[in-house]
Structures are given as structure tokens and as C-alpha cells.
Amino acid sequence: MTAAATRAVAAAYHGPVPGSQSAQALVGLRLAIGLSSWLTPRVAGRLFGLDAKANPQLPYLARLFGARDVALGAGLVLSEGDSRAVWLQIGVACDVADAIAGLAAGRRGYLGPVSAALVTGTALGAAALGKTALGAEEASPPVAAPASS
Fold this sequence. Notes:
The protein has helices spanning 3-12, 20-39, 41-47, 58-78, 81-108, 113-139. It is mainly α. Residues 1-19 have low confidence and may be disordered. It comes from uncultured Solirubrobacterales bacterium.
């Protein structure tokens, strides 16, 4: 759902959709990273300091990662209420796992310090954004449909 569509739905219910800004930012991040990883895996890898020439398997793994992020973003777009909270929790769990993988890869020398910081920082940022969106969703009462006449 686009920001304009979300605002239109919110206006119909006489108020803002709880957590929508954090959730919309997370959807945008997931779709941007996911689609770029799927469509241009070598370019996406370079943005994170990864060397596709030294690692010919990078495009395959980047596309797996990209498909996962697109699925997580789509889950947020297509869900609401308790289902949306589950999608947010799953996303946070994936992001924390990604951060741990980045730290481990840096510590073991699989990634250089800059690459390890980039992948770990991005994952931690996404996890924090997911937790913020989840907190906003849980703190807000469900939005009731307007009464019919």
C-alpha cells in the first residue's frame, strides 16, 4: 500500500493508522533492498562491500536474500492487526539473525571490517525499525470500521 493510499484509509477511519510511518519505512526498505538484491545482485553486493568476482556464488545468495526481504515487505503490506504484528516479529527475528551473521563473519574474517559493519549496521537498523513499528502497533487499539448508515 502506498503512503497516499494509507493516508486515504486512515482518513476514512477518522485518524492515523497506528505505526504506519515506521511500518511504511520498513516496507520501503525491504522492497528496495530485496528488489535490488534480486535484480542486480552484484551491484547490491558491492554496496555492502562484497566482491562478486572473488565469490561467484554471491548472485545466488543475494537473490535468496532479496526474495526473503520482498516477501517480508509484502507480508506487511497485505496484513493488518495481529497478522501484521506476526509479520513484524518475523522480520525482526530475521534482522537480528542477519546482524549476528554479520558480526560472526567479521570476527572470523569472512568479511572485512567495513563490509561487516555495513551488513551488521543495516540489519540492526532494520531490526530497530521493526521493533518501533511493532511497539506502535501493540500500543494502539484496533481501528474500528466506520458505522454503516
